[in-house]
Amino acid sequence: MTQIESQVCTANAAQKYRTHLSLLLVVCIVLGCQENEVDYNTQIKPILNKHCISCHGGVKKKHNFSLMTRALALSDTDSEAPAIIPGDARHSPFIERLHSSDPEERMPLDAPPLSEEDIQLLTRWIDQGAQWGLHWAYQPLEPPSTSSPEPDALGLIALPTHTTPALAFIDQEIRSQLHSIGLDMNPRAEKGALLRRLSMDIIGLPPPTYLQEQYLRDDNPWTYAQLVDTLLAMPQYGEKWSSMWLDIARYADSKGFEKDQNRSIWTYRDYVIKSFNEDKPYDDFIIEQLAGDLLEDPSDEQMIATGFHRNTPTNDEGGSDNEEYRVRAIVDRVGTTWEGLMGTTMACVQCHGHPYDPFPHKDFYRSFAFLNNTRDADTGEDYPRFKLFDSLQINELNAIKQWIHKVSSAQRAKEIASFLKTTQPVIYSIETDALINADHYDTKYLGLRKDGSARIKGMDLTGKNRILTRLLTPRSGGVLNIYADSLNGLRIARVQLKNSNWTFWIEEIPIKEISGVRDIYLQYQNNTFNNKNYQGALFDWFYPTESFPGREHPEHNKYKNLFYKLLESEPDHTLVMIENPPDRHRMTHVFHRGNWLSKTEEVQPGVPSVLPPLSPSEEKPRLAFARWIVSKSNPLTARTLVNRIWEQLFGQGIVITTEDLGSQGALPTHPQVLDLLSYRWMHQYHWSIKQLIKTIVLTETYQQSAKNTRLKKERDPYNQYLSRGPRIRLSAEQIRDQALAISGLLSEKMYGPPVMPFQPPGLWQTPYNSQDWQESEGEDQYRRAVYTMVKRSSIYPQLETFDMSQRQVCVARRIRTNTPLQALITLNDPVFVEASRCLAQRMTQEGGDILADQINYAYKLGMGHPIDERKNQLLQNLYHKVYQEYASTSSDTIITPGAMALQTVANAILNLDELLNK
Amino acid sequence: MSTDPLKLLNELSLHRLSLSTRRNFLKTCGLSLGAMALTSMLSGCDNSNKTVSSGIDARDITNPLTPKAPHFAAKAKSVIYLHMAGAPSQFELFDYKPLLTKLHGQPCPPSLLQGKKFAFIRGTPLMLGAQSQFDRYGQSGTWLSDRIPYFTQVVDEVSFLRAVHTDQFNHAPAQLLMHTGSAQPGRPSIGSWATYGLGSENYNLPGFVVLTSGGVQPDAGKQIWGSGFLPSVYQGVQCRSKGDPVLYLSNPEGITRNIRRQAINAINEVNELTFEEFGDNETVSRIGQYEMAFRMQMSVPEVMNIKDEPDYIHEMYGTQVGKESFANNALLARKLVEKGVRFVQLFDWGWDSHGVDKFSALEVGMINKCRETDRAIAALLMDLKQRGLLEETLVVWGGEFGRTPMQENRNGVSQQYTGRDHHPDAFTMWMAGGGIKKGFSHGTTDEIGYEGISGKQSVYDIQATILNQLGFDHEAFTYNFQGRDFRLTDVQGTVIKDIIA
User: Fold this and answer.
1) Measuring CA to CA, which of A354, A499, A907, B291 is 20 to 30 A from A261?
2) Which pTM does this prediction carry?
3) Among candidates B219, B240, B297 on the partner chain, residue whose Cβ is nearest the Cβ of A317
4) Residue A381 pLDDT > 50
5) Could you tell me which residues are beta bridge partners of residue B407?
6) Which fold has domain A418-571?
7) Of the candidates B79, B44, B167, the residue with the CA atom closest to the CA atom of residue B427
8) Cα(A841)–Cα(A845) distance, rounded to whole angstroms?
9) What are A203-241's pLDDT values in tens digits?
């Protein structure tokens, strides 16, 4: 406290050039460094990162000298002696060579020498023992020392006690830094402006009119905190905040590469919206998405959640290697998990050790190993899929389950139910090898020609007497033989295959009971073929199983038929994760220089040693990894999410690089605020995102007016010090949603398959893909942006132009741009033209009889407060000019000059800078 | 205690962050020569030439496409990149291999197949000689096939790269690699890098324009002209042959140009008041962007209209007004660079000659593709030359990989038509203009064109060379993202000095 006070005192005299000095002081106070003790993180690491580490770091270790860890730096170099001797800078070659006058000796080589100040610092640091420090983001989150047991009553969403002091602490922190550069916070924003900011931030829409009316009244019955609660409780909250998450999850409704076929995974998007609305604790939210399938008896919702990592692009291109694209998907999952959830850029570690942060090459593959055992394998059908049965089918499924439970066992009932929902675990036909007169057609299906054969390696047939297979048989007269161990081995089945007329069907093949893990050979024969190149059978998957239970029961056939009915049914589906069965377990190897074909050392799942260890657990590794990520000892997860929420509200994070909290990322501007919120969020708010948002928007910092001054522009140009309230261009989604909301067009319908609002014909030009943009009908034209079809190779133009991410990879931070193409959208896109027309109608119907009132009404719908008189006058002038122009040039009898003029004014309002910003 | 290190670090990170937002341009470009030149250039423009009452020029300093100087003097001011999507066969066009013709129909020796992966070839394929006739052309005496008769007349303008290789053998990732330096999605395309680094010479047109023909977009989708982690203002703007050339360029029914002018005036005047109130520089920028949108509504249809070109130009290119065709796009490319557009990219789809059907047959489909493009490509080079533009315009031609000297036998079955499989190890590209040697060949392949034996050049070398001609050291041309300095050429690439004049 005294330190902060003295900080404030110093600050009063501060001049503008002291910006960085003061930030340094703050950081030093935070990290508790003493006057004379050199601090590694704030003083030494920046010098090393800038001047040394590119040659003596995690990638290059020239002369066998690396500064990545203390142990490495103190070990012998190629000179057979260490370069750094702790406590003895004078005899440390590291320092000697900074001073050297020989250009071949002097470091840094071929670069200007270090400043005398830097050398002094390094010298003192070595003399003091050359201690390495842990980068701030990896340090544990400690309980804050600010709490005092005061109750608070801040509204409906009960924040835990001690929140008032937390708010005070945050504001005080912001203020003290502002004081240090001779600035202060702005006064609170005007009520109307604040209402709109809050509404845009929480529900992504202008404030509903009833809230405007009540909150802006002089005898306003609402407290600000109640207003926050009301907004947080609205279902539109989840629709707004899901966009942030869907960027991280790289959610899209198409597969990504080349043909870019549509993909059905929208229930995952709905899961995200629901989870935000339920305020699902973040730890559960993460565990479900990474490993919901591995939870005990997972619910449908928990299965659907695993779509998170099934959003990776897949490649249907003919001739593409499925294993290559499976590996790419896992690489992407490792990168997304680290970047999206833990603010760490792990992607570079695929090829070599991290150049700046303490993650050796192997760490990438240890993470990879957690995720390397899921069943998805770049198959054409995007397996595994989870069937979304309708209520009738669910009843049938339950009936089957109950009956099997009765005639067989609970275990068997569960297995069969799970198989019906997921069609897993099956062996994909592309896993076959030893092909003779056969091929993997389009790298998707095994095709056997006349006398063609293929092998399925290692099928566990213990206790099995059936093989189910999904296949297509375009010609009559085919016979399938199945042999064990070799083509000359024991024939375990021979079946006649029907002509299925180029459609897939499911065949149950009885087999001789043999036990053990065996190689299986399939052979196709057809005596009617006079050309050996005719395609006989095309296989999708194989599933060894037992015969349907309860043969002795009279109802056996009824339930077996029901089983096949559900198995062959093709309701909507979504993509999920399923773990490999033990006989399909994959080992993980380090890839030499990141090349998947060049496997080296085998690795086990594990976490980087710089972070807290994984708790020993009986659970599957992927689940254990998910639990570790959201364990309270993991310092990265909470900091990353809190920083992200802060970024959403203020336009930039406390650490501006939301994607990278590592040592190459930006330093936190307000580290104590980040840590206080992170700690409280985990321990007191129990990972509640609503409580976190509420805390932040209750600060005075957030409630400041957004007005800028010359002084503030000069001393705080990027608003990093938060000298004013946030003023940021609305997101792509908000711009659409706002226009629809103001014009009264917006549909409140939630959830469901993606919709296709109007876009000009011919934009989808994907090769080998006849799918088309099928314009949605009725209210589906006017749904919120989050429901718009995301086709990766052709993003909806309005959203793309306003910087929505392409959803190809995890995007932790969108970069906002300001372009003429954006102006063309809001001026001319038929969606905005229609919105303008409808807004004009509202203006005449609801806005009174006088033009000035009508303009004010429209403006208020968007802004939540009345329009400035001068602005109103400018828009009235526009009305009159357009009226005259149109009356004198157009002979249109349907649209009157008045209607055209008002519509133009309405469109102008939708294009105002104020409307496009929050 | 010393304050320097942290100060430095903070400055550094602020600097990097300012680069990653377009705000930087407010600060840095304000007084640049480019911006001043621009102001004078534009002074003759229509009634957008106005200064707002807040004292800030609305045609402003805030444009991220303001021209900027590269690292060193550039040989080329603009680039026209002709990508034949699907990967044309070098054996039917440029890589003359008499021995392969002799070996035609022989089974491929196992030594060529060992350790190789093919997209579609299975088992032992047959060798396939060129399906076209070769002869020598031009002063340079370059071997060329009879499929490109017009091109034979301009062969002395180009430098061939005969031993280019890639490491991707599927279309989408190979196209991504060629244009973004990574086979994974998410990186900026070369056109985005160029406009990021150089800005645009024309204030009324996008700096990076993409034109497609062949009915579909390239396999890798729109992301190969995407801006990746660069601000989206640098992404390629696709100009279309049907409907609005740029999406939503035309005003809705009933809104005349005059009404649009009035509306933008009103919007901008209100925004000036907003700027007075909040002092947000983005507001000023927005005023400028609305002005530019207004100008684009005129300038883009103008430049995209080929109707008024003289007959001899139509004759030369083989253009047909109103059609979506490669020839029309080639003519548009000339018009665009003439107007100062920095990077023009043409994608022509349909070169994937597998021989599985007529369309993809070397003896049918490919001949048609040659007919559709040959005349226009020759015309483009000649037209640029006669206008004195070829000197400062780099023209690049190529596919995403090459094709095999073996005949494709998809699924292990011989095919009705003749085709070749994907081949990443050796293929031909060419460059012309923009400081490239004339009538030159670099690199050779072995006697059956299977692998390069000299002058082997990677995709990164191509990229490094393009950037070099634009005045950039590809190793120093970086953008910091995720704590790392990214470059187009990743950690590779060497400028192909041999073909530089």
Assistant:
1) A499
2) 0.85
3) B219
4) yes
5) B420
6) Jelly Rolls (2.60.120)
7) B167
8) 6
9) 999 999 999 888 888 888 889 999 999 999 999 999 999
